[in-house]
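Record pair follows.
FIRST:
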Amino acid sequence: MEADVAVEDGVVVGVGDPPGARGEEVDARGLHVLPGAVDTHVHLNEPGRTDWEGFATGTLAAAAGGTTCVVDMPLNAHPPTVDAEAFRLKAAAGEAAARTDFALWGGLVPGGVGRLPELADAGVVGFKAFLCPSGVDDFPAVDDLTLYEGMREAAALGLPVAVHAESASITDGLAERARREGRRGWRDYARSRPVVAELEAISRALVLAGETGCSLHVVHVSSGRGARLVADARARGLDVTCETCPHYLLLDEDDLEALGAVAKCAPPLRPRAEVEELWTELTAGRVDLVASDHSPAPGSLKENEDAFAVWGGISGCQTLLAALSTAAPARGLGAPDVARLVAGAPARRFRLAGKGRIEPGGDADLVLVDLGAEHELRDEDLRYRHRHSPFVGRRLRGRVAQTLLRGEPVWRDGRPVGEPRGRLVRPERPAAVR
């Protein structure tokens, strides 16, 4: 629709033709006004590993791409966010440097079930667990008993558990065999983490979620079959959702072969047929949301001829909105669909009140974007601490003219505006169900 959006004290107070509009006017003629994206899967590594990426550069990149709230994962910081004190340290780091609002995941690790209540009280959106090695020594994978007991505790606390779903026995065994046989290329890496490893782990998590009554979220689903497992379980009455990422929708295994380390992630990029199947599930409404899984690392960790030894993770928070906007039209999806997938659905799923919507009472987190403009992404356009991305050199649709956080610009005409003023956002909590 064509309309004015009236904002007062950082909150939307009218949409349409608000009467008696006064004060400063922002001219958005010729642009789409979308709710700021809510990226529920980023790794900002602070405190402790800020030489990788911290809140300052990570949220600047997010704001440049039209994201106004990020939800940070618990594992790459040192200490990881597995207790209330670690939460306090991470929140302080964010409040000192973030240019967007932010929320925090807590961690579920072996020996940590008893700390979930203190994390819930501190204000986490939920608990993240790995069903395979995380790659970080102080954030180990959960065993089945820890996952079962952690889910039971999370259900009592009224918070979801998010799982990285890959079978460790399958992926570790195939990787060890490939390296022993001297097969260390990019396709060797991809084939050591087959779709069946994702399906097995999702199925196991669904069984435990059903048994405990836990709300479950499956992160970065890379296959259509994985998304269908989640959708089928939801149809049976389980409280379960899943996300995918732009790199699983726009890139494939051939891109991994061509680009190498900059496109390494886990689960890996899939063959084109799997990408098409994932799109089928997304356009049918069986994928709930899209997040970046922004997982940066210094360039030195991306330099190794052994594909298995290279640090895995794709830098993507700056291109979340543009990448999805680029691919969506050819799949029959419009701006409302993009806004739902990257803003409305994530905010609702994780109870981030006021986020992800343009309506009276919502936070005035807005992105003004020219969806008709195309540009070729260059290294120098990136605002990450380490400027690498598999989308460099690609033509992307959508130029962010301005990003507003609670009604005030934080990014305008290719530059940051003002000082960092991001706030910690805590989710709305349901009543305890013990």
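SECOND:
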Amino acid sequence: MNKKVIVIGGLLAGLCTGLLGTGGGIIAVPLLCKALNDRQQAHRLVMLFILPLSLFSLPFYLSRLTADWSSVLLLSLGGIFGAILGALLLNRLSDGILKVIFTLLLIVTGVRMLIR
């Protein structure tokens, strides 16, 4: 896979993240899986990829945010522990299991979006 395709994929992933607040990984994971032929490495790289996307879009969200900061703190604490657990599990799960988990997450998310 050439660098131009990866840059365009990054552009689309960034667009989704900026527009929807999520979705960059949904585009970047399959793209990097194909480019690297290594699902676990693709998941690891996407974690590095999502950080700058979040940081660069944050100022645009903050300008219109009315937040319950205690909820943000609690969500962040849970998220940190969940991310640690997920990173530890990533090293133990096969590519096939990761593929099933990722696919199920996409299906559940899509169905929930349609019915709400």
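COMMENT: The chain has five helices and no strands.
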